[in-house]
Amino acid sequence: MRLTRAQRARLSESVARSLLGAAAAVVIGLAAFVLVYIAWRGVPGLSWEFLTEVPRNRGREGGIFPALVGTLYVVVGTGLLTVPLGVLGGVYLSEYAPRRPSTRLIRLAVANMAGVPSIVYGLFGLAAFVLAAGFGRSILAASLTLTCMTLPVVVTATEEALRQVPADLRHAALALGASKLRTVMTVVLPAAAPGIVTGVVLGLARAAGETAPILFTGAVFQMRRLPDGPGSQFMALPYHIYTQVTSVPNWNRDLVWATAFILVLTVSAASAVAAVWRSYRRRRTAW
């Protein structure tokens, strides 16, 4: 029986919906499997001692407290540098940049920066911040390196979030006598905040889990004390996992899996909080 055009359209739509649903189910299933497996392997190694003590016996015993604190310092430092620069860059490209070839080149450069491997950023940070700028291997050098890696994500997310804000909001604010700067700061940015926060969280989550950039710029194998300032070296969770698996004979699998679980749990919790806040803000600012 020959199908009509409307029937073919409905059949194509049904097939496409089924394929998209299957693809989404596969992605969600894989993500759930990874999270459940890491939790299954990592939870047995968790203890109060593990979270609050320094590593001993080259990390085979003790805890990860210095690595937790070092990771927090680096992520906070990266956020303090990345958020204002990335948001301002996105605002400029979306609201102020003229439509010229130079602007397209800037967007192309940002897109290319997002695709640069993290090991390249690590080598750049070593050359630019550790050696040329004289910061040495430190939290500051690592934060600057991770900022360079994270900026493209935040800039792109900010620009896209601002583009999603209806032009009517801008026109209404301008019609009421607000300046362009006031319109952007009090109307457009608050409306685009959910998308911007998403980009910031994604960028910082990537920074928290990177090993190569901090490998060259300040992370150390083991410290029995906490960092004492931006110029101090530090331990970090991803680097701790890397060195345990690659450099320590007879490494303690329970502790390594527990470290991986803590890292994934921290990043997932930050993403979940951001998702809840984003959903709340979108309901409050529904257009």
Topology, element by element:
Elements: H1 5-42, H2 48-52, E1 55-56, E2 61-62, H3 65-96, H4 101-114, H5 118-132, H6 139-163, H7 167-175, H8 180-209, H9 212-217, H10 237-247, H11 253-284
Helix pairs in contact: 1-11, 3-6, 3-8, 4-6, 5-6, 6-8, 7-8, 8-11, 10-11
Please characterize this protein's 3D structure.
This protein is mainly alpha-helical and 287 residues long. The chain folds into two domains: 14-44; 46-284, MetI-like fold. The chain contains eleven helices and two strands; from the N terminus they run ααββααααααααα. The protein has helices spanning 5-42, 48-52, 65-96, 101-114, 118-132, 139-163, 167-175, 180-209, 212-217, 237-247, 253-284, and strands at residues 55-56, 61-62. It has a two-stranded antiparallel ribbon. α3 (65-96) runs parallel beside α6 (139-163), α4 (101-114) packs across α6 and α5 (118-132) packs across α6. The longest helix is centred in the N-terminal third of the chain and has 38 residues, at 5-42. The chain starts with a helix and ends with a helix.
